[in-house]
Amino acid sequence: MLACVHGADAGPETQKRARRALRTPTRRLVLDLIRTRAPISRVQLAEITGLTPASITHAVRSLLDEGLVQESGLREQTGGKPRVMLTISARARCTVGVQLGADWIVVVLTDARGAVIGRIRVRGARQDEPAEVIGVVAVHVGTLLRATAIGPDQLIGAGLAVPGTIDPELGTIRVSPSLPRWSGFPVRTALSEALGVPVVMDTDATAAAVGEYWSGRLAGADAHCTLYMGAGIGAGFVLAGVVHRGAGGNPGPLGRLHLHRTGREPGPALEDLAAPHAVARRARRALDDGRVSAIALTEDEDPFRDFGTIASAAVHDDPLALELVEESAHYLADAVVTVADLLDIDSLALAGPSFSTAGALYVAVLEQRLQPGRDRVNVTLAAHVADAAAVGAAALVFHEDPVSAPPSVPTDVRNVPSVYQVPTS
Predict the structure, then answer these.
(1) 215 — pLDDT class (breaks 50, 70, 90)
(2) Are residues 190 and 294 in the same domain?
(3) What are the tens digits of pLDDT across the range 148-166?
(4) Which of 22, 139, 255, 302 could potentially form a cystine with 232 if both were Cys, beta carbons 3.0 to 4.6 Å apart?
(5) Nearest of 339, 331, 330, 294 to residue 314 by alpha carbon
(6) Does 393 share its domain with 375?
(7) Is there a single domain that holds both residue 376 and residue 228?
């Protein structure tokens, strides 16, 4: 689709360019260090990584040849021959990140440094058929590319962050309570065909954790957890600098935990206690019982809009709203404390659209609950709270090898009409 937006052919050459991204662990490591520590010399790269100078030279040469890295013109004076410093070619390669959710769909365009250069946020996908949503996402990607003057040779791939559990081999969503229509739909292949580039896919929580790692905010953290709350609840982990995906690519589905048993019954799941729909349901019940509050809920009982209203009222000190948000935070803390005890985490970031308004209130409760009896856990809001999964999904293209999810690019690419009169980001 997007090839026609640019007037280019999405054929073998496009696939070949897109697959050149990051083929070896050494290249990925070197690129990541240059991105986070530039300007940096080859000698410094060898000292930090412990790799041989020959390995560093080979990796740097390939990155220079592909335009991902450039020699900055700066020189490090060491008393001998000046060392040439390396830096990232920010616009040489760009990636798209798509955050698919029942509450919001977010599409971002990022450069090689991870900076967001374009963003579109629209209402979520819960009411529409998957194929229609993929077409809309492709339109939004085309809009961002035109608005930012990014050409097809610069776009190396796309990352997709989805809620629920996934099948990494098939590129499908196995189960997603918030997006039941998407179970079994070949979402990765569909998006790859729509965009004409390789697509890597992960859970929204893991993608958000990758985004935190990519931002450089996890320096010094040995065991990090990103708590993600959109329509549902999940967790992503970076342990000893490595993204943890478990045996099947689905770590941290916290929303399914049953922590409050009722006799022999498992009791409600965490999402039924702490997620936006649960908070909205309790608010509606409290108002029906006569509680006084500034909360004005929607007539159509939209749980995500209602939660946004409750969160806004909470930050303005509405008593009922504060009570509801803090109750949600304590339910989350029950699960997070368990995770902290199991993994001995020292870093926790809160990410997802549901933390975008009242995130500071959640941070306060989690800090309080995490501190007793353990080493300090650094609790923060994510760098891109509402769009964390989209930004992380874009980073996945650099962090992973796009060849693992090869595209099937159609030869009869269709024209995509723009839904915008004037391209905006």
Answers:
(1) confident
(2) no
(3) 999 888 899 999 999 999 9
(4) 255
(5) 294
(6) no
(7) yes
Dist CA 361 CA 363 (whole Å): 5
- 177 in the same domain as 98: yes
pLDDT of res. 74? 64
- The domain total for the chain is 3
Together in a domain, 312 and 376: yes
Q: What is the CATH number of the domain that holds 57?
A: 1.10.10.10
Q: What is the pTM of this model?
A: 0.83
The answer to the question of residue 9 being in a domain is: no
Place of tokens 């608005």: 147
What average pLDDT does the segment 235-245 reach?
Answer: 93
Strands 347-351 and 223-229: parallel
Q: Can you give the CATH number for the domain in which 175 is found?
A: 3.30.420.40
84/41 Cα distance (integer angstroms): 6
Per-residue pLDDT reduced to its tens digit, 91-144: 888 999 999 999 999 999 999 888 999 999 999 998 889 999 999 999 999 999
Full DSSP string of 188-214 = HHHHHHHHTS-EEEEEHHHHHHHHHHH
Q: Are residues 84 and 99 in the same domain?
A: no
263 Ramachandran zone, left/alpha/beta (phi>0; psi -120 to 50): left
Q: d(Cα 184, Cα 357) in Å, to the nearest integer? A: 33
Residue type, 390: A
Domain-located, residue 34: yes
Structure tokens at 206: 């893991």
DSSP 90-157: TTTSEEEEEE--SSEEEEEEE-TT--EEEEEEEE-STTS-HHHHHHHHHHHHHHHHHHHT--TTTEEE
Asked if residue 414 belongs to a domain, the reply is: no
Structural domain containing residue 84:
22-88
Number of helical H runs and strand E runs in the chain: 14, 15
* DSSP letters for 22-56: --SHHHHHHHHHHHHH-SEEHHHHHHHH---HHHH
414 pLDDT higher than 70: no
Last residue of a domain, one of 69, 88, 107: 88
Read off the pLDDT of residues 22-71 as tens digits, 9 standing for 90 and up: 457 888 889 888 888 889 999 999 999 999 999 999 999 999 988 889 99
Judgement on whether residues 205 and 168 belong to the same structural domain of the protein? yes
Within-domain flag for 418: no
Among residues 39, 68, 88, the one where a domain terminates is 88
Q: How far apart, in whole angstroms, are the C-alpha atoms of residue 387 and residue 355?
A: 11
Question: What share of the chain in percent tops pLDDT 70?
Answer: 87
Mean pLDDT, range 330-355, rounded to an integer: 96
